[in-house]
User: Which sequence fits this backbone?
């Protein structure tokens, strides 16, 4: 069983704020896997069901962000789960909007929800899925920024990210954090660049190997000689060529005349 917890604040006034990115992600996740938040357990709205043939509990604590740890601890105890079975989905100021990243343990970055969970569980070694919300221009604006709504362009990026988050959490549920992080912590452009670099290294290594085995290989390995408009002469052709040269050679008398010039 896996416990997936999205962080946020309850109430319609916080519904689409940046700090509620965790709630928003779980709403999309539940809809994607046809689950419903129709139960209340351990101070949280809960959806029970399966993802990738694995039993899951999706939870949105209703204690407000700063007290999320209390609900998370109760859920972990109720379902007798290990830290590896827990995933916290939350907003992150240090990631650009439209990006996500898996992480295990580490600091809280001043996120009060993560600080509450760390205090309640007694450690910070739990799994996380960070959703980028970017930083405000001035640090003094952080509180009003995270409690404010997304501008339209950022909301569009977030909406494009949610389907990928659904897939990523499915991978976590099925294969664990390491597999999910290896697959989803890189954006497509970065993965493509790394694949191209790998292919370039392979071709270079192959070229060096061929050069060691056959010094002239680099001259011909990329050329199809059958396409060249060249016909090499046979031995018989060479003899005919030599005979024609002899026929065209000046006679002895001509040489004598030429000597007088």
Assistant:
């Amino acid at each position: 069983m896996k416990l997936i917890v999205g962080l946020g604040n309850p109430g319609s006034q916080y519904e689409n704020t940046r700090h509620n990115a965790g709630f928003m992600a779980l709403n999309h996740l539940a809809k994607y896997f046809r689950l419903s938040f129709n139960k209340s357990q351990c101070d949280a709205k809960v959806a029970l069901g399966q993802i990738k043939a694995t039993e899951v509990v999706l939870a949105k604590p209703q204690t407000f962000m700063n007290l999320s740890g209390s609900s998370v601890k109760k859920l972990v105890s109720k379902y007798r789960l290990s830290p590896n079975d827990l995933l916290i989905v939350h907003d992150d100021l240090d990631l650009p909007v439209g990006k996500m990243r898996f992480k295990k343990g580490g600091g809280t970055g001043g996120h009060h929800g993560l600080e509450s969970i760390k205090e309640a569980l007694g450690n910070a070694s739990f799994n996380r899925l960070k959703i980028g919300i970017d930083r405000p221009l001035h640090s003094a604006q952080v509180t009003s920024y995270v409690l404010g709504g997304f501008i339209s362009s950022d909301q569009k990026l977030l909406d494009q990210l949610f389907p990928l988050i659904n897939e990523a959490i499915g991978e976590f549920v099925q294969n664990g954090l390491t597999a999910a992080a290896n697959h989803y912590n890189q954006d497509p452009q970065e993965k493509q660049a790394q694949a191209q670099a790998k292919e370039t290294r392979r071709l270079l290594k192959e070229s060096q190997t061929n050069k060691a085995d056959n010094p002239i290989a680099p001259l011909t390995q990329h050329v199809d000689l059958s396409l060249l408009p060249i016909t090499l002469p046979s031995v018989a052709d060479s003899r005919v060529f030599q005979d024609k040269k002899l026929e065209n050679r000046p006679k002895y008398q001509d040489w004598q005349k030429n000597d007088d010039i």
Notes: Confidence is low (pLDDT under 50) at residues 252-261. The two ends are 109 Å apart (CA to CA). The longest strand covers residues 44-51. Residues 188-213 form the longest helix (26 residues).
